[in-house]
Design brief:
Length: 392
């Protein structure tokens, strides 16, 4: 890990970070003892109200890196909104709120609310009337509430942009800057991202003051333990049989299959169900209520396979996905990284398979391997119809 450009081999237990008994009790309940590098780097500075910009890979515990000091700073006796977290997607916003709720469990009087589009705004207004001190929101829906004057942000002390790169890439720059301009009493700001783009730096230059820059590189111990396979097929018609066989014979209890389009996601989920594999589809056109229910069933192990578009590749903090299948080779290099990052989390071993059935998919996969420098092993069917490892 690097802090302000200097290499720091920082290993810390939560007990070393001067946290309150309430937070320590919440961490102990979850069985957490040792802080991840981004947490060990960010928490002390956040506790001192410093601005932080952190670049760390997916699945390295960024939510607790800002969430722990955020909850520590909340005054339960004050009913104003004191902390704000902006997230690019509904799924990530919901996940962040769940983790913050866990941290607040033993700190009586601290309330959270999650504001996102695709859900009834009246219900959110009623929750806001209960005076939450922490607001987690997507920029668009938060702007809706600000226009309706159903939320006040003038007393916010801490603001965090989570997955800042993704948020700005999705066109939220104007909303984000308008929101930040309303935080007149802000004491510190955190920006957490897997990549630091020019847009992220532009926001940092304008709104942060001498930020502490924390970089956690994938080559550290936080690098996910993922075995990556490429399976070359003779045509798209082989993909379904191959996927079904791998899921069945691999005995994967929890897997995600990614498709590039909503239509293909629905179609694949239906075909897998016809083969007796428990699965559900998740993409942007499915009602938010149903998506949340599907994710909850997946977390509980009631669904073996989640078939998803890239909307699910970010922000789903599910620690025990056994395998990821790229049913379609992703169109964007970044999407490959975020897809396979759903497995191999929390220091568990994961496996990722990518199906290559056309010349175009082969070219895209070659480019992904070249640019990510990933160690991807090649699998092919032999003449007896068995998958075999092709020695490079």
């Amino acid at each position: 890990m690097e802090i302000n450009g200097e290499q720091v081999n920082e290993v810390a237990d939560y007990a070393d970070l001067n946290l309150s008994p309430a937070i320590m009790k919440a961490l102990d309940k979850k069985g957490y003892v040792r802080a991840t590098p981004v947490q060990a780097g960010a928490i002390p500075y956040f506790m001192e109200w410093k601005d932080v910009i952190a670049k760390a890979p997916t699945g390295t515990g960024k939510t607790f890196a800002f969430g722990i000091p955020m909850v520590e700073h909340i005054d339960p006796a004050c009913e104003d909104v004191q902390a704000l977290v902006l997230a690019p997607t509904r799924e990530l916003a919901v996940q962040i709120q769940e983790e913050l709720r866990d941290l607040c469990e033993f700190k009586e009087g601290v309330r959270t609310v999650c504001l996102y589009g695709g859900a009834p705004i009246d219900k959110q207004i009623n929750t806001l009337k209960k005076k939450p001190q922490i607001v987690v929101a997507t920029p668009g829906r938060l702007m809706d509430h600000m226009k309706r004057r159903t939320v006040r942000l003038d007393k916010v002390l801490t603001v965090v942009l989570d997955e800042a790169d993704r948020m700005l890439d999705m066109g939220f720059v104007r909303d984000v800057t308008r929101i930040l301009d309303q935080l007149k009493h802000r004491k510190n700001m955190g920006m957490f991202s897997a990549t630091i783009s020019r847009e992220v730096m532009d926001i940092s230059w304008v709104y942060q003051r001498d930020p502490v820059e924390i970089t956690v590189r994938p080559v550290e111990e936080s690098k996910p333990d993922i075995t990556q396979y490429r399976i070359d097929l003779d045509g798209r018609e082989q993909k379904l049989d191959t996927l079904a066989a791998l899921i069945t014979h691999g005995e994967y209890e929890r897997a995600i299959a990614f498709c590039n389009t909503k239509n293909m996601t629905d179609r694949l989920a239906g075909l897998l169900k016809m083969r007796g594999i428990s699965c559900e589809a998740i993409h942007g056109d499915i009602q938010q209520r149903i998506r949340e229910k599907t994710l909850e069933k997946f977390k509980k192990g009631e669904i073996a396979v989640l078939v998803a578009t890239d909307v699910a590749a970010r922000g789903l903090d599910i620690d025990d996905v056994d395998a990821v299948f790229n049913y379609d080779v992703p169109d964007e290099l970044e999407n490959y990284t975020h897809r396979i990052g759903r497995t191999g989390r929390a220091k568990k071993h994961g496996v990722a398979y990518t199906f290559v059935a056309t010349v175009t998919e082969g070219i895209r996969m070659d480019e992904i391997i070249r640019n990510t420098k990933a160690e991807v092993q090649l699998l092919k069917y032999d003449k007896d119809g068995c998958l075999m490892l092709v020695e490079g």
